[in-house]
Amino acid sequence: MGEIVIILLVGLVIFGPEKLPELARSAGRGLAAFQQTFEGIQEEIDQGMKEARDAAEVDMPSMNVSDSQKSQPDPDSDDESQDEGDENEHESDREDGPRETESG
Q1: Least packed by Cβ within 10 Å: which of 20, 26, 56, 103?
Q2: Is the predicted pLDDT of residue 7 greater than 60, yes or no?
Q3: Does the predicted TM-score (pTM) go above 0.90?
């Protein structure tokens, strides 16, 4: 509360008693205009988000997958892709040249 009194006193000293009410009115009008603009932008964003959600619901059918389907592996997938990665690792070892082995 004390800070507000100090700010008002400083404003009174700087601007004088004639200008202070005019500045307060101008600040109030400015804040009101800012608030209206902000609300308008917020409404446009909300409307755009609603339209996007509605369009997504129309374009994409609901994809309901039961829990039993989620846990089962895909029968068409091959495990060879993992084996190929291992082969490439061994080939890169050969490209580096012969490796020394420790003998006991």
Answers
A1: 103
A2: yes
A3: no
